[in-house]
Specification:
Order of helices and strands: HHHHEEHHHHHHHHHHHHHH
Radius of gyration: 24 Å
Largest sheet: 2 strands, antiparallel
Helix content: 55-70%
Number of domains: 2
């Protein structure tokens, strides 16, 4: 059994054996075996000196290493390194992460993903965006979004970059989700606003999260109206639902003015980026899925309409102009998914059709 390390411990500077990447307990032997195998074959060799590491991958040294393996003491245990073929013996990082995420069934399992991601980075490998999104969804389902926030803050170790519109906005919606689903519980709403603002600040100051090449959009992410719509949503929800419609600290007005300055008049969410962004391989193509559009656009629309109730009439008219354009897009998406279920329909109903959401929840309880 591996030593269970806290997040700060396994991310501590390397050089002390106690800080070598380890995994905690797993809910299933299969997951434990998967992580153990990846640690043994991929992660541990990264702690060898470069010349030693090169030796264990040399076919001509296979017999020598079989009789006289390279040894290293880790956490009081002597590990022996014999020859291994990069092509035939090493588990795929992508396949390992995919299988690990599929095997997750408890919050404790989730806590093994950050060190796994750190191991992938140590090995010099890269993962497709999909697997970070998959981790995010698992974390949201288990109320473990702080794990995601920790990974983002330590991006150089974990590789969890906010450098694509899809992953950024997916995270922003999931950060708002607890407040939305609670019916605007005060603590959850305030926390959501705090977390969303933190993400915007990270996008503005974190060089590690800057997009490259085809991921770049029409705006820097920290000035993207879709991103800033999340911040406005939580500030406006707090004012309307928790402060009797009063913008005491002026956040709603400030965020609303910044948003309308960046968001062109009469334009919907789908009009904010150039047409080529929606072509095959484009960074905004994810919004073309109708259920996905509902998931991403519903909080933005609600933020615009709530903020319009709080700010002065002139600014409210500008917000409503953008809201009307988003509403038209959203109604088209709704018509396309009529009779379907999914996270987009769920969040839309939570915000705009709570009776339907309550009905679905009741049906789910009866079936259970």
């Amino acid at each position: 059994m591996f030593e269970v390390l806290g997040f700060d411990e396994w991310l501590a500077p390397i050089g002390c054996a106690a800080h070598i990447l380890s995994f905690g307990e797993s809910s299933s032997p299969k997951l434990a075996e998967l992580l153990d195998h990846y640690r043994t074959m991929v992660i541990l060799p990264t702690y060898l000196a470069p010349d030693q590491r090169r030796k264990i991958y040399k076919q001509k040294l296979k017999q020598i290493l079989q009789n006289d393996p390279i040894t290293m003491e880790i956490d009081g245990v002597v590990h022996k390194f014999r020859y291994r073929s990069k092509a035939g013996d090493l588990p795929s990082s992508t396949a390992t992460v995919k299988e690990a995420l599929e095997l997750i069934s408890t919050p404790a399992d989730l806590h093994n993903i950050p060190p796994l991601l750190a191991g992938v980075v140590r090995a010099g490998h890269k993962l497709p965006l999909y697997y970070y999104s998959m981790f995010l969804r698992r974390a949201a389902a288990h109320n473990q979004l702080q794990l995601i926030m920790d990974c983002i803050k330590t991006v150089d170790r974990t590789g969890f970059k906010l450098n694509h519109s899809a992953i950024i906005n997916e995270l922003l919606v999931y950060l708002q989700w607890p407040a939305i689903k609670s019916g605007w519980n005060e603590a959850k709403t305030k926390n959501a606003l705090k977390q969303v603002r933190l993400i915007v600040n990270i996008l503005e100051s974190g060089k590690s999260h800057e997009p490259k090449g085809d991921n770049e959009g029409a705006f820097p992410y920290y000035r993207d109206p879709q991103v800033l719509g999340s911040r406005l949503h939580m500030a406006a929800a707090r004012a309307v639902h928790l402060k009797e419609g009063k913008d005491d600290d002026g956040l709603v007005a400030r965020f609303a003015q910044e948003l309308v300055t960046l968001w062109p008049e009469d334009k919907g969410l789908l009009d904010l980026q150039p047409d080529e962004s929606y072509q095959k391989g484009g960074p905004m193509r994810y919004l073309l899925d109708r259920n996905a559009y509902l998931f991403f656009a519903s909080p933005v629309l609600n933020g615009l309409t709530l903020a319009a109730q709080v700010v002065d009439p002139a600014l409210a008219m500008q917000l409503q102009n953008r809201a009307d354009a988003v509403e038209a897009e959203l109604q088209t998406a709704l018509a396309a998914v009529e009779g379907q279920e999914g996270r987009g329909v769920s969040i839309y109903n939570s915000l705009f059709n709570p009776e339907a959401e309550a009905g679905q929840a009741a049906e789910g309880e009866e079936e259970a």
